[in-house]
Write a structure and sequence with these properties.
It holds the Pfam family HEAT_PSME4_mid. It comes from Vitrella brassicaformis. InterPro entries: Blm10_mid (IPR032430). The chain has about 200 residues and is an all-alpha fold. It is about 65% helix and about 0% strand. The N and C termini lie far apart (about 90 Å).
């Protein structure tokens, strides 16, 4: 880079320090800055590329911001692509817990009953939060799987937990829960009667 390439700088900048609107030399430009050792060669100091820390001569603040933005976008795309699989695994784990959970006792004197109720509330809130962050196709798929699971795992001891899960679906997407669950309940009541 020689002095002839610096003539593209604004003339107002040159006129403030050099008579006759002459372009400053590269040495004068670098020496005039309080952070002269940090200004990249050939870069006009401005609010966009004024360096705040030492960096390679070819890099500017704008370049660093662009790279950080690209990295953030890439990370979010990767996380978004993994969410559906993660939700499926999470929901399978919840169903395994429900199938092995004992029936919460009605009395508040029992320590195990209190623990079961507390765990049920915590799990219910976590399921509700996961469902509210999921899209409609994912909720529909999970609700369908849940309905299939209920038909094959109707255990009296975990009835309250299954009711809690149903409420989570209703809060997350009432229309989907109604479309998936109500016809199955109606069919069961009409054709087979209530469960024993």
């Amino acid at each position: 880079l020689d002095d002839t390439e610096l003539k593209e700088y604004p003339k107002g900048y040159a006129a403030s320090r050099y008579p006759g609107n002459a372009s400053p030399s590269l040495t004068d430009l670098r020496a005039s800055s309080p952070r002269a050792d940090l200004i990249p060669i050939g870069e006009f100091p401005s609010f966009q590329n004024y360096p705040g820390a030492a960096r390679p001569e070819s890099a500017t603040v704008g370049d660093a911001a662009m790279e950080a933005s690209k990295e953030k976008i890439s990370q979010r795309r990767m996380v978004t692509s993994l969410i559906p699989d993660w939700v499926d695994q999470y929901f399978d784990a919840i169903l395994r817990w429900v199938s092995t959970a004992s029936k919460p006792e009605e009395t508040t004197v029992s320590l195990m009953g209190t623990i079961e109720k507390t765990v049920g509330l915590v799990v219910g809130k976590s399921v509700e939060q996961v469902l509210t962050q999921s899209d409609q196709p994912t909720i529909h798929r999970l609700c369908t799987n849940f309905a299939d699971w209920i038909e094959g795992n109707m255990l009296p001891d975990c009835a309250k937990h299954m009711a809690m899960m149903t409420q989570c679906f209703a809060r997350a997407d009432a229309a989907t829960a109604t479309d998936v669950l109500v016809p199955r309940v109606y069919k069961r009541l009409i054709t087979r009667g209530p469960p024993p």
